[in-house]
Design brief:
Number of strands: 8
Order of helices and strands: HEHEHHEEHHEHEHEHEHHHH
Strand order of the largest sheet: 3-4-2-5-1-6-7-8
Strand content: 15-25%
Number of helices: 13
Bound molecules: adenosine-5'-triphosphate, magnesium ion
Distance between the termini: 63 Å
Oligomer: single chain
Shape: globular
Largest sheet: 8 strands, mixed
CATH architecture: 3-Layer(aba) Sandwich
Length: 287
């Protein structure tokens, strides 16, 4: 992808439009480079975890044309971004309310016009988000896979970006390529990393250590390690059930990891998870 000065101007004008419009509103984009690493699963569940901590969240399905957040939430939305872009609905009319009060905007699916969204349209969407007359603290944008001009503009217009990767070298390489493109345009853009589908904390830490070292050495970029998420068979099950894990299986490892990432994002101290019945029983006996 060639990210030229025209793209930089586009990002700059988007950022100017979005900054300072709403005090305290944070726009966070989740992106990856490689597809299928868990962006949408993390976005949906992180939004619910943040809502459970009292944050008012809106999720925007920004995987334009291939959106599937509403499928994960098990809802059929009548109106989505296409209707907004065609001028048939206002932005506030395509905001739906889901679990724990999380608001969301569906990107719609299979719509070529969204895949070809132009600069003006992206600007219209991003600007519209910041003007929504709704109580919102955080907007989470679930971006599509790949690295393209619209994604880079959206990232640079956001307050911060979460790079999602797995421990596989192919995902790491694509995350590196994406970070390099971002840093080239704005080396101060705040970046977080989540290591998903890790076999263990040890594996995640090992890969994160190596990745951070390479980023520091070759790009002089420090990224904030938001944490890792272990491989959890409950994730595909929850997608099949069309109910997010935070709702259907809040005691699984995925849900626990997501809660700890939510706290890290808010810079809250880690929460002590209650032990299971047996550990509570035995700790009682030891006293
Ligand atoms: N921690 C995890 N443990 C087990 N499976 C996972 C985990 N995270 C994601 N998955 C699985 O990986 C697949 C891809 O997840 P998801 O759709 O969230 O990724 P994505 O990055 O949004 O993909 P795309 O780039 O296509 O939008 C799904 O089948 C999901 O069940
Ligand atoms: Mg996705």
């Amino acid at each position: 992808m060639v990210f030229d000065d025209k793209n930089a101007d586009q990002a700059q004008s988007l950022r100017e439009k979005m900054s300072g419009v709403r005090n305290g509103l944070k726009v966070i984009t989740l992106a990856s480079g490689k597809g299928g690493v868990g962006k949408s699963s993390i976005t949906v569940n992180l939004a619910i975890a943040l809502a459970q901590l009292g944050i008012r969240v809106l999720v925007m399905d920004a995987d334009f044309g291939l959106a599937n957040i509403d499928v994960m939430l098990g809802v059929q939305t009548k109106h989505n971004l296409t209707h907004f872009l065609r001028g048939e609905r206002r932005l506030d009319e395509i905001v739906h309310i889901g679990y724990d009060g999380v608001r969301f905007i569906s990107g719609g699916s299979g719509m070529m016009e969204l895949l070809r969204m132009n600069e003006g349209q992206l600007s219209k969407v991003m600007h519209g988000l910041t003007k929504l007359d709704m109580p919102i603290d955080y907007i989470l944008c679930d971006a599509g896979a790949g690295i393209n001009d619209n994604l880079i503009s959206m990232i640079l217009a956001s307050s911060e970006t979460i790079i999602v990767t797995t421990t596989e070298p192919t995902a790491i390489l694509d995350a590196y390529a994406l970070i390099k493109t971002i840093v080239k345009r704005d080396n101060l853009h705040p970046l977080h990393v989540i290591m998903n589908r890790a076999e263990s904390k040890k594996e995640a830490d090992h890969v994160l250590d190596g990745f951070s070292e390479v980023l520091a050495k070759h790009l002089q970029k420090e990224v904030n390690r938001l944490g890792h998420i272990t491989l959890d068979p409950e994730v595909p099950r929850s997608i099949k059930r069309q109910t997010p894990i935070m709702i259907s299986a809040p005691n699984t490892s995925f849900a626990r990891d997501i809660r700890s990432i939510a706290r890290e994002l808010l810079e809250l101290p880690p929460q002590k998870e209650p032990g299971n019945v047996f550990s509570r029983l035995f700790s009682g006996l030891r006293k």
